[in-house]
C-alpha cells in the first residue's frame, strides 16, 4: 500500500514514552471454577490478583468465531486467527472462511493455482497432504469431501456426510447460488484428476483423541465413491500430526522428514493394506494417541507403496493455516534445501491451499488467496519510532512475530526491532516438561525492559496451551503456575521502569480440560471415564491493564461489551500515546475526567 499514511496522530490525553509490556498467555480462557479448570485449580496468585484488585482494568474479550474472522460461532479460536486479530486490529475473513467461499462459488477451480496443478492430471497423480479432522483450525474434512448437499434452504441447514452444519446468513447467500457444492476431491476429479492419493495426518489435538478412526472411515467411503466413478483414489500414507509433517517454526525437522519419507519416498516403519486398519492398530500400542501416531504407508498386494510422489505429479497441501505447513512447503518447493536429505526431489506442480508466507511468497502457487492482513499495529508502531522487542520459545515464536505481523516473516525495520527465540525442548510431549521455557522468556523480557532499549516488549507464554493440548490435567496445572510466575517477573520489571502492561490471551484451552454436555457437565465415555478435551475452547479470554505508567484516570470503557481480540491493537497503540488508525476496531480504554 504505497499511499498509506503511516504517521499516527498523537493521543490527546495519553502521554508517550512509557515502556509497554504486552503479554499473551497462550490458551488461557475464563471459565467456571471447577476441578477441570486448570487455571482455577493451579496456583496463579498474580493473575488472580489482577482480576480481584482492579475491576476497571480487567475484563473479558471474545476470542472465537466471528470475533476473529472464523466461519461460525461454533469455531473455537486459535493462535493464528487470535494473534492476527491482536496484531492487526481488524477482523479479516480467515483461511477457513475463504476456502469455504472459494469451494462454494467454484472459484477455486478457476484460479491460477488449480490450473497449475491441473496440468499434471492427464498423466500424473494428484496428491493431497494434510490434517484429517473437522477441527477447523488447520483444515476441515468437509472441505475435502465428495459432496455437501444443500437440502433445506428454509431452515438454513446444509446436510453433508458429516451430519448437519448450520449456515449463517452470509453463508446462505453463497450456498443458495450453488445447490451442489463441489468440494476438493469431487471437484478435482470432475476437473480431470484421474488418480488421487491422500496423505493423512491424524489429529486428536483440535478434536477428541480417538476421533481419527471415524475421520479415516469417512474419507475411505468418499474415496470408494470416487473409485466407483472410475477415479483411482486411495489413502497412501499417514501419521500423527505432531510426529509427522506438522512441526512449526523449524523446531524439529525430523518431524517433516518422517512425513517426507512416507509421502514422497513411500517409506515408513509401518506398512498396512488399509488406513483404517493402520490407525486402529497403531492406536492400540501402549500410550499411542492420534497426535503422535508413527508414520505408515499403505501398500498393495506386492508390498509396494501405493502412492509415493514422483516426477510429473501434482501436490496440494490442504491445510489453510500457515505455521505448520511452511516447513513442508519449503521441502516441496525449494530447489536448494538442506534441512534434511530429501533423497529424491521430484519435479512436481505444488500448490498450497493458501499461500502460507506473504513475505517469502511461499508457496508460489496456491488455490485460494490468503487474507490480506495489511497495516498491522506492529508496522504502524515501528514506523512511528516504537522500538520493539518480541520473544517466545520456538513453538510459539512465530505467534508474536509472524502471526502478529499479519503472516509476514522478518522485521519491518531491523534497526528498531529485535525478535528473540528461545529454543524449545525437542522430541518430548510438553506434559513431560510443563514449565517449558517460561522462566527463560520472563528473563529475556525483563532484560529487554530494564535495558531501556525498547518501547514495546511483546511476549507469548505458551504453557497453558501447549500442555493443555496433551490432556494431562496435573501437568497443565504446573504449566499454569509457571506461566503465572513468568508474567509476574515481567510485570515486576515493568513496575521498575514505570511502564504499562497489557496482559491477555489468544484463546481458551487450559481453563477447560473436559468435554461437556450443553448443561456444562462433564461427559463420560462408554467406560465411564471423563472425556478429556485436548483442544481449544469457545471461552472468552481476560485482558488486564496496569502499571505505574498508566494514568489513574485510564480504565476500560463500559460500552464495548462485545469487544474482542481485534480491539486490543488500538488499545496498545493508545497506551503508546497515539491515536489508532480510523478503521481499526475501537480501543477498549477511555480516559475519564477525574
Ligand atoms: O497447532 C496447534 O498446536 C493446534 O492445532 C492449535 O494450537 P495453537 O492455535 O494454539 O497454536
Ligand atoms: Mn494459541
Ligand atoms: Mn493451541
TrEMBL record:
Its EC number is 5.4.2.12. It holds the Pfam family Metalloenzyme. InterPro entries: Alkaline_phosphatase_core_sf, BPG-indep_PGM_N, Metalloenzyme, PGAM_B_sf, Pgm_bpd_ind. One of its GO terms (biological process) is glucose catabolic process. Keywords: Cytoplasm, Glycolysis, Isomerase, Manganese, Metal-binding. Residues 101-146, 183-357 form the BPG-independent PGAM N-terminal domain. Pathway: Carbohydrate degradation; glycolysis; pyruvate from D-glyceraldehyde 3-phosphate: step 3/5. One of its GO terms (cellular component) is cytoplasm. GO terms for molecular function: manganese ion binding; phosphoglycerate mutase activity. It is found in: Cytoplasm. Its cofactor is Mn(2+). It catalyses: (2R)-2-phosphoglycerate = (2R)-3-phosphoglycerate. Its main location: cytoplasm. Residues 20-579 form the Metalloenzyme domain. Belongs to the BPG-independent phosphoglycerate mutase family. Catalyzes the interconversion of 2-phosphoglycerate (2-PGA) and 3-phosphoglycerate (3-PGA). Required for guard cell function (e.g. blue light-, abscisic acid- (ABA), and low CO(2)-regulated stomatal movements) and fertility (e.g. pollen grains production). Monomer. This is phosphoglycerate mutase (2,3-diphosphoglycerate-independent). It comes from Dipteronia sinensis.
Amino acid at each position: 500500500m504505497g499511499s498509506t499514511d503511516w504517521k499516527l496522530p498523537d493521543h490527546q490525553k495519553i502521554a508517550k514514552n512509557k515502556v509497554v509490556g504486552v503479554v499473551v498467555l497462550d490458551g488461557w480462557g475464563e471459565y467456571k471454577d471447577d476441578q477441570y479448570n486448570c487455571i482455577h485449580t493451579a496456583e496463579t496468585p498474580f493473575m488472580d490478583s489482577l482480576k480481584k484488585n482492579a475491576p476497571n482494568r480487567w475484563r473479558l474479550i471474545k476470542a472465537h468465531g466471528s470475533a476473529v474472522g472464523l466461519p461460525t460461532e461454533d469455531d473455537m479460536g486459535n493462535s493464528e486467527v487470535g494473534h492476527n486479530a491482536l496484531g492487526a486490529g481488524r477482523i479479516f475473513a480467515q483461511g477457513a472462511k475463504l476456502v469455504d467461499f472459494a469451494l462454494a462459488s467454484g472459484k477455486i477451480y478457476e484460479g491460477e493455482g488449480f490450473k497449475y496443478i491441473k496440468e499434471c492430471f492427464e498423466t500424473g497423480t494428484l496428491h493431497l497432504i494434510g490434517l484429517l479432522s473437522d477441527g477447523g483450525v488447520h483444515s476441515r474434512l468437509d472441505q475435502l469431501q465428495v459432496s455437501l448437499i444443500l437440502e433445506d434452504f428454509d431452515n438454513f441447514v446444509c446436510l453433508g456426510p458429516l451430519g448437519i452444519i448450520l449456515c449463517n446468513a452470509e453463508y446462505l447467500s453463497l450456498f443458495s447460488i450453488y445447490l451442489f457444492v463441489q468440494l476438493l476431491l469431487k471437484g478435482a476429479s470432475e476437473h480431470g484428476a484421474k488418480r488421487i492419493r491422500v496423505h493423512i495426518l491424524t489429529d486428536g489435538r483440535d478434536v477428541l483423541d480417538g476421533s481419527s478412526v471415524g475421520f479415516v472411515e469417512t474419507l475411505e467411503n468418499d474415496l470408494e465413491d470416487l473409485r466407483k466413478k472410475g477415479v483411482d483414489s486411495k489413502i497412501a500414507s499417514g501419521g500423527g500430526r505432531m510426529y509427522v509433517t506438522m512441526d512449526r517454526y523449524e523446531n524439529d525437522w525430523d518431524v517433516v522428514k518422517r512425513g517426507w519419507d512416507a509421502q514422497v519416498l513411500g517409506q515408513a516403519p509401518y506398512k498396512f493394506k488399509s488406513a483404517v486398519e493402520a490407525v486402529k492398530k497403531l492406536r492400540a500400542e501402549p500410550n499411542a494417541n492420534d497426535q503422535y501416531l508413527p508414520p505408515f504407508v499403505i501398500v498393495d498386494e506386492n508390498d509396494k507403496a501405493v502412492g509415493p510422489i514422483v516426477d510429473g505429479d501434482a501436490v496440494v497441501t490442504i491445510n489453510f493455516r500457515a505455521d505448520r505447513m511452511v516447513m513442508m512447503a519449503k521441502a516441496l518447493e525449494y530447489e536448494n534445501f538442506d534441512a534434511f536429505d530429501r533423497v529424491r526431489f521430484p519435479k512436481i506442480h505444488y500448490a498450497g491451499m493458501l499461500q502460507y508466507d506473504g513475505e517469502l511468497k511461499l508457496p508460489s502457487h496456491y488455490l485460494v488467496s490468503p487474507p490480506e492482513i495489511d497495516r498491522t499495529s506492529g508496522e504502524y508502531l515501528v514506523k512511528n519510532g516504537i522500538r520493539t522487542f518480541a520473544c517466545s520459545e520456538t513453538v510459539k515464536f512465530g505467534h508474536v512475530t509472524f502471526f502478529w505481523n499479519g503472516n509476514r516473516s522478518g522485521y519491518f525495520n531491523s534497526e528498531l526491532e529485535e525478535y528473540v527465540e528461545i529454543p524449545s525442548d525437542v522430541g518430548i510431549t510438553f506434559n513431560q516438561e510443563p514449565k517449558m521455557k517460561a522462566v527463560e522468556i520472563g528473563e529475556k523480557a525483563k532484560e529487554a525492559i530494564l535495558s531501556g532499549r525498547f518501547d514495546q516488549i511483546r511476549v507469548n507464554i505458551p504453557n497453558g496451551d501447549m500442555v493443555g493440548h496433551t490432556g494431562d490435567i496435573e501437568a497443565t496445572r504446573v504449566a499454569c503456575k509457571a506461566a503465572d510466575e513468568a508474567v509476574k517477573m515481567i510485570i515486576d520489571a515493568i513496575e521498575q521502569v514505570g511502564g504499562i502492561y497489557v496482559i491477555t490471551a489468544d484463546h481458551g484451552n487450559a481453563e477447560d480440560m473436559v468435554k461437556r454436555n450443553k448443561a456444562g457437565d462433564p461427559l463420560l465415555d462408554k467406560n465411564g471415564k471423563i472425556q478429556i478435551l485436548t483442544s481449544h475452547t469457545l471461552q472468552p479470554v481476560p485482558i488486564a491493564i496496569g502499571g505505574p505508567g498508566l494514568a489513574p484516570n485510564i480504565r476500560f470503557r463500559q460500552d464495548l461489551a462485545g469487544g474482542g481480540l481485534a480491539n486490543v491493537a488500538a488499545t496498545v497503540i493508545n497506551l503508546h500515546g497515539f491515536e489508532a488508525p480510523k478503521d481499526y476496531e475501537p480501543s477498549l480504554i477511555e480516559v475519564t475526567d477525574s
